[in-house]
Amino acid sequence: MSCITSDNHRQYADSKKLAARARLNSEHTIAEIGWFPWVAQQLPLKSGDQILDIGCGPGWFWAGTAASLSGNLNLTLCDLSPGMVQEAVERCSPLPFGSIAGRQADAAALPFADGSFDAIVAMHMFYHLPDPVKCAAEMYRVLKPGGFLAVTTNGVGNMRKIYELTTVFGSPPHDPAGAAFGYDAAKRLMQTQFGNVAMTQYPARMRVTDPEDIFLTLTSYPPGEGASKEQRLALRTAIADAFQAGNGVLETEKETALFISLKVA
Question: Are 199 and 265 within 8 A, CB to CB?
Answer without folding.
Answer: no
